[in-house]
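Sample pair:
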Amino acid sequence: MTLRLYEDVLVYGPAPEDVRWVLERIGARTCSTILEDEAGGFVQTATGQAAPEGRFAVEYRDGEQYQALADDLAQVRPVFEAFLRGDRAWRTALDLAVQDL
């Protein structure tokens, strides 16, 4: 897996503490974080233009692409940590809707 913050930080084979460190650096300015597996599936979050002020857009791809809005990082962090573990149960934690791409 790879973990990316903005275009600046790239971590190969991230650990849970790497995910927490990266998510803690998301601020009010436009930024994104993506965690991608070897098959091309990913979970990502973004602020700024991607989401209403103070919220986080969360996107997930596994064949189709889904999106939800989270109110805070407390909702985003478990999604990233579960994806990292390969646990798919997190997908029911947010109201994910299929995106028309």
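The mean pLDDT is 86.
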